Amino acid sequence: MSSELLFKSFIDWIFKDAPHGDLTSNLLIPRDCIVKAIIIAKSSGVAACVEEISEVLEKFGLKIHINVKSGQKFSVGDEIMVIEGSARNILLIERTLLNLLSYLFGVATSTRIFIEKARMVSSKVRIASTRKYPPGLGYLAKMAVNYGGGDTHRFSLSDAILIKDNHLAIIGDLCEAIKIAKSKVSFIHKIEVEVRSLNEAILAVESGADVIMLDNMSVEEVSKVIEELKVRGLRDKVLIEVSGGINIDNIIDYAKLDVDIISTSKITMNPVSIDLSLEIVNVLK
Question: What is the pTM assigned to this prediction?
Answer without folding.
Answer: 0.93
